[in-house]
Each structure stands twice: as structure tokens, then as C-alpha cells.
Amino acid sequence: MEVTEGARHSLTANIPYSSLTVDHSLSITHLKPKIVELCKDLFNQWSNLDGSHFSVETVSGGITNLLLKVSVREDDGKHENMTVRLYGPNTEYVINREREMQAIQHLSAAGFGAKLLAVFGNGMVQSFIDARTLTPPDMSNPKLAAEIAKQLRKFHQVEIPGSKEPQVWNDVLKFYKNASTLQFDDGEKKIKYETILFPEVHNEIIELKELTDRLNAPVVFAHNDLLSGNLMLNEEKEKLYFIDFEYGSYNYRGFDIGNHFNEYAGYDCDYSLYPNKDQQFHFFRHYLDSDQPNKVSDKDLEALYVETSSYMLASHLYWALWALIQAKMSPIDFDYISYFFLRYNEYKKQKEKVLSLAKSYLSKPELGKRLM
């Protein structure tokens, strides 16, 4: 609540705020009266409506947050729809809520995501987006991939106030520090956790950081969590939406794209679905020049391919360590420790091929001249 209270003060004026919290773990039946109470506290115009004027349904339940659709029937018969997002318990360990609140306002003004309507003790209320959530197979659809790339380029051009220091390695090292000192009471978790060779993980972080630092990748305001669940499509209007900016920060361009490609695999981590080189180049062309994608040079495609591949590895380390913290902190029924091994093992599987690609690229004489 202290985090949310601090974030509230960084908002522009006139955003309603309530200190109420809603238990993330309640069934939808028990959630409804809590959500009704919250809405009546936040919005004065609904304070005298009884519970029959409100309907609440689950939109999605990811592995961190719970998203609800709330419909309000006003006295004149008009319906207002909005979404209520309940933060996952203990997510403040991995998410900077103040940074998120600030970013939402600027991204919304630039046409991204839903409008922020209110903030409360453990979540936020936003305008409702009438669209369906994408699935992992959707992202490999060439037409959708081109649109995602086009919108991501626009997203990366939004200026957000504050420090423009890229955050990936700060976050990875912070996650490592927290993840490597956990204590588990659960016997099965404890046994799995104790098989992790943390000195090896730390060496991998340092080695990859040193390599990616040599790439001089552009720094942009990145989404950092562009999985299918954070992409919505209104097929009638052919409009694509990016949502949920809680992991957003200034970061390396290649990290955002590489992380997005990793999400083709879904939560099951089926990396046979990772986009091949032709699919990646299709995405890069529309990212670099959506008006004339076929005129993007081979040199620019190859540079972005190397950058993205290298930061794809960083994405695996990021979410692997994140998962260990969630295994300790989150009450959600998800096997986070197994998820650590799925991500870390894929990192190790891809490492040598990607590092060889990057080192070969960096050794080119013409590149050395450009980087001097």
C-alpha cells in the first residue's frame, strides 16, 4: 500500500483514489461485493446504487495479476464498462509501481493501452477495451506480426519522463541477489531449489552482460512483457492494443523484441514455436520501416537479428530468476520453480550458437570502425 500511495502522488491531478484492498484469492462470488464496495468508494456517481446494478466477471487470470470486467447499469439505463486489475500479492518485489503509474499516463496519451480511471490499495481501474486477448499462435500470423512490429516501433518512440538508464541488467542482478538467498519450507520446492548452481548463474549473467554491452543497442522505453496475454485485437475494427505496462522501463530495443519472440512459446515453453530467421526478418522489416518494409537493407536486418538474439538470452535469465522469487512470494497455483528450469535450460541450449553469432558479427572490421 505504501508503494501504491507513493505512486498516487506522482499521478496528474483528479485521479480518484481509495485505500481499500481486494483479496486476489476470492472466488468471483465473493469478489463481487468487494468490487461493488470499491467502485462506490471510488466513483461518487455510483455511491447510492445497490449491488444489482453491478456485474463482475473474470477477463483473465495470469500468473501475477487478476483482470476483471465490471459493468455498471446507471439509473438512466446506460451501461458503463471498465476493467479492474488486482495486483498479484507481493509483486512489489519485482515491479516498480510508481514507474508504472507514470508511464501509463504518457502511453495512454500516445494512444497505447487503456485510460487510467482510478487507483486503489492493491490495483487500478482502467477503461474497458472491447477486444479479444491474443493467443501464442496468433503472434506468428504474418499479418498480425507485421502490425505488432509497427505498433512496437511507435511504442518505442514514446518519451517517458525520468531516468533513461536501461534496466535489464539492474533488474537481473537485483533478481539474482534476491533469488539466490531464498529459504523454502515446502519440501519439494526446497529440493528443486537446492539443485540450482547460483555461482554458475552469476557467471552467465556477467558474461552475457559484457557481450551485449558491446552491441551498443538503442535504448527505448520498452514494454518488457509483450506476451500474447498483453496483446488485444478488435477484429471488426482491425485494431491492435498493447496492455499492462507494469514491467515497462527504459531498456535495450533488442531485449523487448527478443523477449516478445520468446513468448511465442507460451507458458508451456514450447520453443519449437520460436520464430525462425525468415519470420524474424519479416517482423524486423515492419519494425524498421512499416511503409516500405521490403526496402530495409540486409545490413540493418542482420544487425537487428544479432541484437535481438543476444537479448533473447537475457530475457531467459530475467524471467528464470523472476520465477524463483515468485515461487517464494506468490500464492498463485503455478509451478514457478519448474518454470525457472524451463527458461534457464533453454538459455543454455541457445547460448553457444547465439554467442558465436554475436562474436562473429562484432569481429567485422567495418563494424569496429562504426563503433569507435
UniProtKB/TrEMBL annotation:
Pathway the protein acts in: Phospholipid metabolism; phosphatidylethanolamine biosynthesis; phosphatidylethanolamine from ethanolamine: step 1/3
A Pfam family per the record: Choline_kinase
This enzyme's EC code(s): 2.7.1.82
UniProt cross-references to Gene3D superfamilies, sorted A to Z: 3.90.1200.10, Phosphorylase Kinase, domain 1
Gene Ontology MF, one: ethanolamine kinase activity
Gene Ontology biological process terms, A to Z: phosphatidylethanolamine biosynthetic process
Gene Ontology cellular-component annotations: cytoplasm
Family annotation (SUPFAM superfamilies): Protein kinase-like (PK-like)
Family assignment from sequence similarity: Belongs to the choline/ethanolamine kinase family.
Name of the protein in question: ethanolamine kinase
